[in-house]
Each structure stands twice: as C-alpha cells, then as structure tokens.
Amino acid sequence: MQQQLMSDIEIAQSSPIRHIKKIAASLGVKEEDLEYYGKHKAKLPLHLINEETIQQHHLILVTAITPTPLGEGKTTISIGLTDGLNHIGKKAIAVLREPSLGPVFGVKGGAAGGGYSQVIPMEDINLHFTGDFSAIEKANNLLAALIDNNLQSKTRSLNLDPRTIVWKRVIDMNDRALRNIIIGLGGTGDGMPRQDGFNITPASEIMAILCMSKDMNDLKQRLGNIFIGFTYDNQPVFARDLHAVGAMAVLLKDAIKPNLVQTLEGNAAILHGGPFASIAQGTNTILATKMGLSLGDYVVTEAGFGADLGAEKFFDIKCASSGLQPEAVVLVVTVKALRYHGGALKEEWNTPSVERVEKGLPNLRKHIENLQLFGMRPVVAINHFVHDSDAEIQLIQNECRSMGIEAIVADAWADGGKGCAALAGAVATSINKKESHFHPLYKWDTSIEEKIQNIASKIYGANAVEYTPKAKTQLKKIKALGFDHMPVCIAKTPRSFSDDESKRGRPENFIVTVREFEFAAGAGFVIPLLGDVMRMPGLPAEPSAEKIDIDETGRVTGLF
User: Fold this and answer.
1) Of the listed 108, 240, 365, 477, which one is catalytic?
2) 74 given a catalytic annotation
3) pLDDT digits (tens, 9 = 90+) for 139-149
4) Range 8-130+255-432: architecture per CATH
5) I need a labelling partner for 280 at 20 to 30 A (CA). Which of 49, 394, 515, 550 fits?
C-alpha cells in the first residue's frame, strides 16, 4: 500500500492528464460531438443518450452510514470503484455531482475525491468548472428580479401578495448574513421593501429541476411549474405567469449538458448537478446517469450523506421518476464513523477502540436493513485509514457476515483502482448473480402523511411523526394545490437517523417533528423540514478559504 506523502491537490497536479478527446474516444464519442472547455473538460450533447442501450447496462449506487461531520469518503470510494472495475477489465464510468463552492471554501476544502482516487482537473472541478452553478444561480435570480419587478408594475401586475412570496435569491457561498434580509429599501424606484433572504445555490429549486429533467422540453415545463406565492385573492402564482420560462431556459442551455472529465487513472467521469442531500434530492442529474449508461457498461454513482437521506431519495425520487433500475449498492463505512457513533469525542475519532466500534455497529446494521427494504443486497466497503486497527476491521466484517453481507477493505485513497479491485470484483459478482431486486419504499399516490410515516418509521426508526400547527396549515395548502401526489424529499440533519444530531448510533424511542413544509412543484416533490436544517450554511471559525492561494505561475494551493 502506498503512503500518501502529498496533499490531494499536489497528487492531482503531479499526475499526468490526457486530452479530453482521448477520454471521449475511449467511450466511442466522436470528437465533433464534444463541446470543449479547454483541453481537459467537455460537454456531451444529449443526443448521445440511448434508451435501449441503458437497459443493457448496470447502475451501481454508492452510499454510506450516518457520517461524521467531515464525511466518510463516498466520492473517494466511488472513483476508486470505477477505477477498480476498469482495473479488472470492465468498462466503467463514474457519474457524480459537481462540488459547491460553499463547502470548498467552508469546512471540507476540495470535493473531487481524495488521495489517489480523484477526478481531474481537480482545481477546475472544485472552482467554476464549466459554469453550471453560475447558470443556475443566474436563472434563479432572474426569476427573483422578475418577481420584484412585477410588484413594482402598475400595468402588468399579477396582484401578487409580497407576504406570500417563497422564492429566494441564491449564491454559491456559505454566508449566514444573507439568510434573512430586507430588500427594496431606498425610494419608490428601488422596489417594494419586504423581507427576503438567500439560499445556497445547491438548495435552489432550479438545481433540483436540472437534476430531474429528462430533456429541454421537460426542463421548460418544470421551470414554468415553479410556485412563487399567492395573489391577494389567494390564487397561486407560478413562474409561467411571469413569462419567465424562456429566458431562464436560455440561461440553462449549456448547463443541461453533462460534463466529461477523467479520473487520475485516465478513466471517464461525468459530473453534472449538485443538490445537497440534507435539503434536496442529493443526486446528480438523470441526464448524466443516462448518459453514463449509454456510454459505459457499468455506471458508478453516489447519493449525498448517509443512506437515510441520499439513498432513500435516490430510490424513491430519482429512480421512481426516471425508471432507472440500480443493480447493486455499496455501503461505505469507516472505522472512524463507528467510533463516533460509539460515543467517541472528536479528539478520539482516530484512536483505535474496539469497544467504541462495537457500540457504533448498530448504525451500520440499521443502514444495511434499510437498503434491504428497497430489495437491495449491499456490499459494504470499509474505507481504510491508517489509524484503523486489524481488530476493529475484523469486528466490522464479522458483524456484516452475521447478516449475510460481504465487507471488503477498500484502499482507494492510498492505491486507487488497485486498492478497490476486490471491491469491484464483489460488486460485479453481485450484479452477475442478480442479488438485488430494486423497488421503491412507497407509492406516490399515497397521502403525504403516509409517505412521511413510511420513511420516518421504517428508515429512521421513529416511533411517531408530529406536525406543528404551521406545518398542518401548510399541508392543507399543499393538498388544495393538488401537490399531494408528489414524493416527499425530507430535509433533516445528516448526522443522525433522527431530527436531532446529538442522537448518534441507532436511536430508539424517538419522535420526529415536521416543523414546516416547502414544496418544489417544478422539481416535483414536497419538502417536509425536520429539526433545524437550513438552506444557507455559515462559515466555520477557521474556513478552508483561509488556506487557499495561487502563485505567480497560476498554481493553486490549499484545496487539500
């Protein structure tokens, strides 16, 4: 096993990178079909998607147990598994989300994998990339500008009640000062004063719409279905009523196309879309997944945070909407996370402790049980770190074996595809044996309360669901608008099965509370908000931005 002596960005910068046309050629994509963004990035046209070919290829989901605050390396394992599948002779493509600048400059630093399991060019991917996030931001804020312009209009007013407006502006940055603001101050020519706020760009409904759209026509229809608020006589107002759809779609004309890059080992990777799993559906675009399945025999994709959030939404929203049929699922676990769920304090996360791991195992067991509820038989990937002891790893493998599940040590971080060859073999075998038979947890035509109860009781393990008076009032409006046929996209903390992040491990005898509802009529789901989850994060006391720099040669440092 290699020892990593360099940072992630140093490894990425020192690795050879192939011209993107060579990566495309390995997939059978003609050079004239590429839309170049320099030498190492390109957009893929949607006509390359082949629905018949998709049915013949294999979709693999990578998810994780309930993570520690810094995550457990799903992207690293996803890339390593892709390289591992290619290492054992399979034609595999990674299809992943694009990083948000918020976490890049906030807590996590870079978000393109780690060690010897990365997608490159790492700096571009973590920063402005191909401009997709900027396009989403501009389309979102164009709609916001049109709303305030209509409030100002004397001849074309929709009679919109500003107190009911739910559409917020977005920016791709962690900035707590923008959560609640007053706009329109000054004179009468500066707009109507009202309370407003910003969300982070990955929380925009436009991001969710981009990820759920099947083509440009579907995108436009979904944009038109965005709910704005109510008129003074209580009639709903949508984006189509503001004649906003055409201009918004124009801003997204390039963003709708998936982006092609490569892994450190020269294998294809498609990055597209980036909604957070704690506040949205947490998966890359349907178009990118279908593009990958059209061009490669195996597609490795991931869903954000733990399986109770990302995987549930991947199955019940993305797959149920698109008809995608996953054939395998990899559940990422780290010894560090099990110590965390066993009660270890932050300074103890990297200290070997069989006792802590044993106390944390119920969290792993619950995630395995949850994936089995969807008809999936997971393969557990133990994302290996230098502080892991053999005794701790053996304990995890014994626990999985007792459930009839295989747990394999994955050294993606240190050894790339070679370190994930055993994991790749196990996943390919599981697919060949048809060990998984996917089905969603619930049907969309059941009531919203039934859908929430299904997820809360079966996936989270809650005893009951309670609703605040505000949530009950909002639920009546949702039903009156006819949106109760939509799936639910629950927003909650990623650090616990419950809505209280202090409840680690596998909490029992708890109640979850729906404090309020939002709905994304364009994206096509209702959003119950649990606990104190928010749509605009703040920066930590020591943000990663303080460590990022560039020298006179253009070399970026500090992206970890």
Assistant:
1) 108
2) yes
3) 999 999 999 99
4) 3-Layer(aba) Sandwich (3.40)
5) 49
